[in-house]
Design a protein that fits this description.
The complex is a heterodimer.
Chain A: H1 2-23, E1 29-33, E2 39-44, H2 48-65, H3 77-113, H4 123-131, H5 134-150, H6 164-193, H7 197-204, H8 209-226, H9 229-247, H10 252-259, E3 265-267, E4 270-271, H11 276-306
Antiparallel strand pairs in A: 1-2, 3-4
Helix pairs in contact in A: 1-11, 3-6, 3-11, 4-6, 5-6, 6-8, 6-9, 7-8, 8-11, 9-11, 10-11
Chain B: H1 3-21, E1 38-39, E2 45-46, H2 67-102, H3 104-117, H4 122-130, H5 133-136, H6 141-151, H7 154-170, H8 172-179, H9 184-220, E3 227-231, E4 236-241, H10 253-259, H11 262-297
Antiparallel strand pairs in B: 1-2, 3-4
The chains are: A mainly alpha, B mainly alpha.
Chain lengths: 311, 298
């Protein structure tokens, strides 16, 4: 377990440095100008020496400032980054927690429903919602809200970040995928558990079905469910990007997207550069969350293997 | 044939039919004419987007192009994009997984690559890579976008293939094949490749669905495969999408939710339909294999 944690620490450092290198890629571009500053074309002029110089300048900057430095107004950048990141976590963390709790409940429900008449509401619905892109569900929710608003039934603010509505709606959007993901895993775990000897023994001893389900099956399956935490968090983070950019929720993913060197607009002779320092701050924090998730998964996995389940 | 596979084949078959014959159908306007201004019965001017009506069954987009025609004509381009990404990913993953199966060094690279990518959400890395000017201004930008989208998930697929090979190696009859003096090439051709072939069939359907899923996500945040820089009023240049592929229809998503609901509705419906067809197809292939291998082992 300790070995796993150390190795994920190393891999984290490795991927963080790769991302660092990518963000610090030089943007020297030679523009070809036509009459009146018309854009004719541009060629990218990559020099390894410039790239190295960028990396060196960044490291020197970090050491000089003893941190990420200050913004234009003289305020420490780190405060701003952490504040914005916190705003993202306000929707991300609840979504993940809802994902786990509601997901497990939905999984148990799906398992219970698997042979009953209403089974379409069980696993097939979970799989269906898992295959549909989140944005489809988000758009349908928004249409519903707009329809209800037109009837003067509800009043929900759909875009922005500063109201409780925004936070709640975004938590809802973000939690759809995790809930269905965990529900699906829970269902599969329960299906494998049902064939286990100890479950059969418990049943044959006449222990009530519900008790067998919770004590013998779910409790043993939980570490296995937890071991998928990192996959789920990685997907949810990609979704965070989509949700924040789409709903203009000004969190870390939103700013990261907007401070990225623009790939879609530029001035002739002048690229819109990235705000590299805050970029790196955000990347650090995001990958750190993934690191935490990976460690949690690693611990959960080792708990699984301790119980002697050969996987 | 199992029912899932049949449904999957029917759904993807339908999409293929549209892809091949769609543009020649009588109600499809192949030229994608822009109906900028229309007049209603009272001679009042109407500006696009026009809502669904008898003339435009699914309405028009913001340029006044008939949405149904656009969706049908765009099928080709959408599937072309998916096809290139999937084929590229499959070929690379095959090379990596076979390499990893036989060579320790490749296995190490594959594992490190995969663990490194497990720290980077796919959207992150695609965004960062696309903003590199070398990609942005390349004459082959479209190709680079396809390559990047394809590459970021190649490790995951390589691992799947690697596990297939590994599981095959564990099969009891493999020992018999080796004991009978099978050469390395012979074993690969007669055993490993056979199991890989089955996995490729499932994966190609699965990956097509995943790629479409990813294209939807990228479309929402304004990243398209084909784009052209157009001059703007403030002397800046801005990328304008120049293709008919489906994700482009999401470019005005936020306004459309309020004013032209039919555009995202039908665009997302087409894409979701494609995703589900691919997933059902993959599931069908999986079931067919399960039935087949079960009957083989008896």
């Amino acid at each position: 377990m300790v070995k796993k944690i150390i190795s994920s620490l190393f891999i984290w450092l490795f991927s963080f440095s790769i991302l660092l290198m990518l963000v610090l890629i030089p943007i020297d571009t030679v523009f070809e100008e036509g009459p009146g500053g018309m854009f004719l074309g541009a060629t990218y002029d990559y020099q390894v020496s410039n790239h190295l110089a960028n990396i060196k300048a960044f490291l020197v900057y970090i050491f000089d400032q003893g941190g990420l430095g200050t913004d234009g107004m003289g305020n420490p950048l780190i405060f701003e980054i952490v504040a914005v990141f916190w705003r993202s976590m306000k929707i991300f963390m609840p979504a993940i927690l809802i994902g786990f709790f509601v997901g497990i409940i939905k999984g148990v429900f799906d398992y219970g429903m698997r042979r009953s008449k209403g089974k379409a509401l069980g696993q097939p619905l979970t799989i269906g919602l898992l295959s549909v892109p989140d944005i489809v569900v988000i758009i349908l929710i928004q249409f519903t809200v707009l329809f209800l608003q037109a009837q003067n039934i509800v009043d929900i603010n759909l875009y922005g970040h500063d109201r409780l509505d925004n936070v709640l709606m975004n938590v809802l959007y973000l939690s759809i995928y995790p809930v269905m993901f965990i529900a699906n895993i829970t269902f599969k775990v329960l299906e494998t558990e049902q064939g286990m000897n100890y479950v059969r023994t418990a049943r044959s001893k006449g222990i009530p079905q519900v008790k067998v389900l919770y004590i013998h099956m779910l409790k043993n399956g939980t570490p296995k469910i937890l071991s998928y935490a990192n996959t789920m968090i990685l997907y949810a983070m990609s979704n965070l990007f989509i949700v924040e950019v789409f709903t203009e929720y000004r969190g870390a993913a939103f700013y990261m997207y907007h401070t990225l060197g623009s790939a879609t607009s530029f001035y002739v002779g002048n690229l819109i550069p990235a705000n590299t320092i805050s970029q790196i701050g955000y990347i650090f924090l995001f990958t750190f969350i993934i690191l935490m998730a990976n460690m949690a998964s690693a611990i959960a996995r080792s708990a699984v293997s301790v119980e002697g389940d050969e996987r | 044939m199992n029912r899932t596979l049949l449904t999957g084949l029917l759904m993807t078959g339908m999409l293929l039919c549209i892809l091949i014959t769609g543009p020649y159908l009588p109600f499809v306007d192949e030229t994608l004419e822009k109906h900028l201004l229309l007049r209603d019965e009272d001679n009042a001017l109407l500006v696009p987007p026009h809502p669904p009506s008898a003339d435009f069954l699914l309405g028009t987009d913001r340029k006044g192009v008939d949405l149904l025609s656009k969706l049908i004509v765009g099928t080709r381009e959408t599937f072309y994009i998916i096809g290139v990404i999937v084929i590229l990913r499959l070929v690379l993953a095959l090379f990596i997984s076979i390499g990893a199966f036989y060579l320790k060094s490749v296995r190490l690279v594959m594992n490190v690559w995969n663990s490194a990518f497990s720290f980077m959400p796919t959207i992150f890395i695609i965004l960062i890579l696309l903003a590199v000017p070398g990609v942005m201004f390349s004459d082959y930008r479209s190709f680079w976008v396809l390559a990047i989208v394809s590459l970021v998930e190649v490790g995951r697929l390589a691992i799947i293939f690697y596990h297939t090979l590994h599981d095959q190696q564990k099969k009891g009859y493999m020992e018999a094949a080796i004991a009978n003096g099978g050469t390395r090439w012979g074993l690969f051709k007669n055993y490993y490749w056979q199991s890989l072939k089955r996995e490729i069939l499932v994966s190609s359907a699965m990956e097509s669905g995943r790629v479409m899923f990813m294209l939807v996500q990228l479309g929402v945040i304004g990243i398209y495969v084909n784009q052209q820089f157009m001059s703007q009023l403030d002397h800046s240049y801005r990328a304008v999408d120049v293709s008919n592929s489906w994700p482009v229809l999401l470019s005005n998503l936020r306004q459309d939710v309020y004013s032209a609901q039919w555009i995202p509705l039908f665009a997302l419906f087409s894409m979701t339909f494609a995703i589900i067809s691919f997933y059902v197809l993959a599931d069908g292939f999986k079931k067919r294999q399960a039935i087949k291998t079960r009957s083989n082992s008896w």
